[in-house]
């Protein structure tokens, strides 16, 4: 069901080009759907930027744990 929903969201975004705000705790959804990422922990923004940078260049331990959790 979850994969079907992400496929539907991706198709909707391609068709409409509207901005979609997705709150997730799933790194695979980030990989599949995000263009830009805001990572928040304990009410603090730890990262805001492009998905590519989020997935490959984080020095923050919480972000690294999240990215490697897949």
Strand content: 15-25%
Mean pLDDT: 90
Side-by-side strand order of the widest sheet: 1-2
Coarse structural class: alpha+beta
Largest sheet: 2 strands, antiparallel
Indicate the overall shape: globular
Percent range of helical residues: 40-55%
Radius of gyration: 13 Å
Order of helices and strands: HHEEHH
Strand tally is: 2
DSSP summary: helix tally = 4
Give the terminus-to-terminus CA distance: 18 Å
Question: Which residues sit in consecutive blocks of at least 5 with pLDDT less than 50?
Answer: none
Structural summary, described in words:
The chain is an alpha+beta fold and 70 residues long. Helices cover 50% and strands 19% of the residues. It has 4 helices and 2 strands; from the N terminus they run H-H-E-E-H-H. It has a two-stranded antiparallel ribbon with strand order 1-2. The radius of gyration is 13 Å and the shape is globular.
Which descriptors would you attach to this protein?
4 helices; single chain; two-stranded antiparallel sheet; alpha+beta; 19% strand; 70 residues; 50% helix
Summary, kept brief:
The chain is an alpha+beta fold and 70 residues long. The protein contains four helices and two strands, in the order ααββαα.
List the helices and strands and how they pair.
Elements: H1 2-16, H2 27-33, E1 36-41, E2 44-50, H3 51-56, H4 61-67
Antiparallel strand pairs: 1-2
